[in-house]
Amino acid sequence: MSERISDFELSRQIHTVLVLHFVEELKQSEIAQRLNLSTSKVNRLIAQGRKLGMVKIDVTSPFQRLAKLEGQLVGATTLNGAMVTPTVSGNPDTTLQQVGRAAANMLLETVRDGDVIAITGGKAISAVVENLSPDRNFDITVVPLTGGVQGKFYTDVNHLASQMAERLGGTPMLIHAPLFAESRNQRDMLKEMASTKEVFDLARRANVALVGVGSVEPRGSSYYDLNPVPESDRKMLVGMGVAAEFMAHLIGENGRLAEYELNSRLVALNPSELQTCRTVIGIAAGKQKVRPIQSVLNGNFLDSLVLDEETVNAVLETMERSKHVA
User: Fold this and answer.
1) Could you say which of 10, 136, 151, 170 would form a disulfide bridge with 165 (CB–CB 3.0 to 4.6 Å)?
2) Structural domains in the chain?
3) Over 104-168, what HEC string results?
4) How far is CA 61 from each of CA 55, 127, 142, 221, rounded to the nearest angstrom?
5) What is the pLDDT of residues 101-112, one digit of tens each?
6) What does DSSP assign to residue 22?
7) Whole-structure pTM value
């Protein structure tokens, strides 16, 4: 009987110490003083409490629903990772900035000294660059995956490569060639120029690639900022099943390169040339990116994807509907 009383008193003492430490957040020295115990005794009681299963840690977060969506997306695709941010209703620019901030953090967690980072142009990549705030400089090289386009700052991949390298403390290498050549022969000639070939060879060996996922819908597509596609062709592209722009290539819903003349004149790496890259991170935001995301996922071009909550919900819903139709 006395032994049971002793066990009860010990359990109660352990409970008291655990409450003071984990609930009231007192230091072990403060608990020792309050209960007239030695600090080592308090430490042993806490250890005993853990061993007896009296301490259970339950981490709650307002972002649990986002983590669940990330798990669902990874489970339904070939992705190795995903990151979902809240959607700011009625404010696509702010939503894109949040996605860019999340992608910037993912990049900082992924990159290592000595890495080569290859990037495309685009609004999403611009949002990533704007939100890069590293704690230290990285010994990295940033290279474009495509030729350059003068004009808006987010379409100029050389500008973004320079900005990213500056923020990370690394070195940029730029492509001094246009994104679109006038013919296939000119494209081949430009890609074989020593300065262009050097950068593209480095891009093929990139450790990390950061790529926007673009829409080709006639409205709201930055693809048409890159080249003068006739209005009739824009509608035709959608009609023939072209769903995405990826690394400036037009991609069909099946994830394959579209049979469209502009693809044959691109001064850019082919998406298949990133297969040896350690991590290919895609960035997208907005419901207009649902079909493009599905297309790129069908092509197995990405290892990770960063997007907003509204967009991932739409992607998952579309996948579920397709499963039932199949």
Assistant:
1) 170
2) 2-51 (1.10.10.10), 64-325 (3.40.50.1360)
3) HHHHHHHCCCCCEEEECCCHHHHHHHHCCCCCCCCCCEEEECECECCCCCCCCHHHHHHHHHHHH
4) 19, 26, 35, 35
5) 999 999 999 999
6) I
7) 0.80
